[in-house]
Amino acid sequence: MTWLDDLADKAVNRELPTREEALAVLATGDDELLDVVAAAFRVRRRFFGSRVKLNYLVNIKSGLCPEDCFYCSQRVGSAAEVLKYTWLKTDEIVASASAGVAGGARRVCLVASGRGPTDRDVDRVCESIEAFKSEHPDVEVCACLGLLTDGQADRLAAAGTTAYNHNLNTSGGHYADICTTHEYADRVSTVTAAKEAGLSPCSGMIAGMGETDEDLVDVAFALRALSPDSVPVNFLIPFDGTPLAGTWELTPQRCLRILAMVRFVNPDAEVRLAGGREIHLRSLQPLALHIVNSIFLGDYLTSEGQPGAADLSLIADAGFTVEGAPPAPAPATSSASKPAAGPASASASAPARSAALAPVATPSPAAPLSPDAPRPDLVHVRRRGPGTSLPANT
């Protein structure tokens, strides 16, 4: 038994690791990386098997936000050339969300820029949610509208909203370094209000914003204390025109360690691989599926992801199945053929095999680059889907 085996045992039993153990995961070397992934996979498999849940983002109001979150391309004063538009109409929202469902999404996430909604804004979002649910009663709806005031979470719940997303983003001690127009406590209060209204709490983090290992552990433990059902883990997309432009602190290996630490701290939560995965994990995305059990399909709020078909291939090639999808037909075999590889196992060889087999549709540099080299060539501003005349990426 190794310390990682002991850590996985604790997580399987829903026991909180010590801060020292969480920090140790982040401090592991590259020669231990597959052991870290394999240990995290034991926990992922215990609670979620080989399923991957697909989520689909719909940006229903983009840009022109009065808040100054340093990481955000929609912040006040942002020079990022992202799409800017006011509230989409109900039929536009339903059409965009339905495209995600057609692509395999089990949850659609309706997101609006701004500090928080007015009561009139909540009315319009509730109308859209009711219209969508009338067509897709079995699909979950998550709303993300900013800071909520009294009664707004209850109204969203009454309209059929499943969940409410409001990320903590970073530790309380680091928060003033990434935002000055609201406080960390405001975010905690909104997550709490959503939970009290009966909405499934969804709250996560962004890595790569100048935080320390201690900050990452602090926010992971703070999330555990809030008991969110879903924990999206984002990796900073350093848009030009924002205060964090040019901030490239992450390697694919670092991202995997962060995901594993979050899994050990929040073992039975839906850990979601979110924005920035294509940019920072790159060809190691298949390994991440051995830790997380949820991803976003297609594009993000203001940036483009890899093609939806590539996401589905990524999942299948790594030996996982899309939650809610019909079983895939068995491939034809001959007597001379070797047996197909089975589903992912808890051994370190399974992640290694997945990484070797699963292609990722991202541009290849002309020459090999160091894992910690900046990759601004992979940052693409969204120019399709909601707010445009072009079809969405599903």
Distinctive features:
single chain, 394 residues, alpha/beta, TIM Barrel, ten-stranded parallel beta sheet, 13 helices, 12% strand
Overall description:
With 394 residues, the protein is an alpha/beta fold. The chain has one domain (51-249, 268-325, 345-363): TIM Barrel, CATH 3.20.20. It is built from 13 helices and ten strands. It has helices spanning 3-12, 19-26, 33-48, 90-102, 119-135, 152-158, 184-196, 213-226, 252-265, 277-280, 285-288, 308-317, 349-357, and strands at residues 51-61, 107-112, 140-144, 163-165, 200-202, 205-207, 230-235, 270-273, 294-296, 321-322. Strands 1, 2, 3, 4, 5, 6, 7, 8, 9 and 10 form a ten-stranded parallel beta sheet that branches. Strand 6 (205-207), helix 8 (213-226) and strand 7 form a beta-alpha-beta unit. The radius of gyration is 20 Å and the shape is globular.
